[in-house]
Amino acid sequence: MCGIVGYIGNKKAAPILIEGLKRLEYRGYDSAGIAVLDSNRVHLVKAKGRVVELQKKLSWDLGGNLGIAHTRWATHGEPSEKNAHPHTDCDGRVFVCHNGIIENYKLLKEGLILRGHIFKSDTDTEVLAHLIEENLRYGDEAFSRALKKIKGTYGLAVIIKSRPNKIFAARNSSPLVIGVGKDENIVASDASAILGRTRDVIYLNDGEIAIITKDDVKLQSLKVQKFNSSKRPQILKVAERKEKLDFNLDDAQKSGFPHFMLKEIFEQPESLANSLRGRIIKNNSLAKLGGLESVREQLKSIERLIITGCGTAYLAGVVGKLMIEELCGIPCEAELASELRYRNFFPEKRNLAMVAVSQSGETADTLAVLRRAKGKSINGMTGSKNDMLTLGVVNVVGSTIARETDAGVYNHAGPEIGVASTKAFTSQLIILALIALFLGRERGTISPKMGKQIAEEIEVLPKMIKQILKQSDQIKNIAEEYKNFNNFLYIGRKYNFPVAFEGALKLKEISYIHAEGYGAGEMKHGPIAMIDENFPTVAIVPEDSVYEKMISNLEEIKARRGNIIAITTEGNDKISYIAKNWLYIPKTIEILTPILSVIPLQLFAYYMGTLRGCDVDKPRNLAKSVTVE
Ligand code: AGP
């Protein structure tokens, strides 16, 4: 998710653009840039880091009343000044701000380079600037002609030196809204950048283009536009599209949700789709992970895999371990980085690889383990003699862990603002599932038929999550019923064993209630002593290979007057004989159930926290990224 803002009107553009970027900074903040057209000169200024770094580079009297600006959340290309938007064509006549992913950019870039274009950045976005450059002879149509070649998602704001009184905007999957003001118009990736200047807005729909002047907005539908034909682009009526913004800045940044945490829980169908985008080749049932290409051969021969991380990231690693052992036949350990960093885990053999899982890419303990695996001694603990292969599963592009691992896969889950890891966790799980598919197909432990089945099941997960989220009111009612309980047990088995711990962690860190995750098989070895009517159990009990075992655990709990909240498979009506409350997840293959079973647990923790008056986005004593030991 990046932040885009464009301004055209009677006032100086730069201050308005910077104010807009500051309001959009929650969407991405690794670099920022601005392009302002002043007479026939464009001032292009970029900076790595937050918007304030860009502001420091701007001269106060930057003229020009037309401009676009961008605050970046990197997906392709490290965070840097050269990769910051706006991106330009060869001669600095076209300026592009983009939010989204251009899936076919590599092919387009090859063709453009062959046709003599010189690229300045590593981003996917820059290809669009050069495509527009190739179509400048078509005047206003240059933008739409270039867009026709793009596959992928975009929210765009573009200015062209030779079209000095216009901003070109377009939307495909990444939201874009136009603020209609008095002698001025603003375009932005969300309304937070527009509030304060106008409340009259037009939301662009997918496949629409807008040509924006200071006193007019022309809407066109890209879909029906035919070129070199008499058929002119379909002009859409603007008047019918105007809406009134009726919310404040805070609401806008949370897209109308009361908290970032809830917004990010509900974002998971989209964030999971972004994590999957372009990474499954269904016809030969392969996972396409560009970030592992350079180590493909080494991965074929690894004999042992260590997955490490902290907190939720570690628990994702435990699920990943089970997936990889089951699908790839590789011995795999999931280790808490805060423990592993003080142990000698180096093999006598060379063929060991490590996967560091981290949303922020900055967690101190995870980084310390990684550095020891790369041979560095840390706090008196020697580093590995044989330089281990290290991979990262990281959400923040260009973060320290991402830069220090040999290879890896970015989550592309977008910035996670809430301290509790929600969409990052499901993204980590899906990336680890893709890595298991990648390894299994490479090593021949997954047949094409089985790979196809896994790929098909993975592809429908975003839709399944949408289905689960429809139960949010029931979950809120259940939280209402249990909000005064002060102890919870979470139990699961096999793939949902780590999910029990993740569910408990969510409840602990959001509502400060004591909650324990436990393997259900361990009940008789101690935990069942705690059970009575004051000690409810959350049980993850999908209809899978250990379902009957789980049911017998639940019968033991019920026999001791323990209340049960069950997460089970849709259609399982027998659960009502044992559980006091139940929630459903759609049927999927067993190894993917954690991606679904965690969703109700996230919502339960959220509602328990809000009902108990906790600051769910910034829980007490916690930081989003633990960069100290
Ligand atoms: C999870 O909800 C917590 N915020 C915390 O456990 C987090 O997962 C852990 O600190 C690891 O962070 P990382 O993914 O950024 O490395």
Automatic annotation (TrEMBL):
**EC category name:** transferase
Gene Ontology cellular component list: cytosol
Q: Where in the cell is it found?
A: Cytoplasm
| A GO BP entry | UDP-N-acetylglucosamine metabolic process
Recorded catalytic reaction(s): these are: D-fructose 6-phosphate + L-glutamine = D-glucosamine 6-phosphate + L-glutamate
Q: Which residues form the active site?
A: 2 (nucleophile), 624 (for fru-6p isomerization activity)
Q: Quote the subunit structure annotation.
A: Homodimer.
Q: What name is this protein filed under?
A: Glutamine--fructose-6-phosphate aminotransferase [isomerizing]
List, alphabetically, the Gene3D superfamilies matched.
Glucose-6-phosphate isomerase like protein, domain 1, Glutamine Phosphoribosylpyrophosphate, subunit 1, domain 1
Species of provenance: Candidatus Azambacteria bacterium GW2011_GWB1_42_17
Per its UniProt record, what Pfam families does this chain match? GATase_6, SIS
Per the UniProt entry, the Enzyme Commission number(s) are 2.6.1.16
Q: Which UniProt keywords apply?
A: Aminotransferase, Cytoplasm, Glutamine amidotransferase, Repeat, Transferase
Question: Quick check: keyword Repeat in the entry?
Answer: yes
Mostly located where? cytoplasm
Source superkingdom? Bacteria
GO molecular function of the protein, one example? glutamine-fructose-6-phosphate transaminase (isomerizing) activity
The record places domain Glutamine amidotransferase type-2 at 2-215
Ranges of residues in domain SIS: 295-445, 478-619
- Whichever gene encodes this chain, its name is glmS
Its biological purpose is as follows:
Catalyzes the first step in hexosamine metabolism, converting fructose-6P into glucosamine-6P using glutamine as a nitrogen source.
Entry-linked InterPro entries: GATase_2_dom, GFAT, GFAT_N, GlmS/AgaS_SIS, GlmS/FrlB_SIS, Ntn_hydrolases_N, SIS_dom, SIS_dom_sf
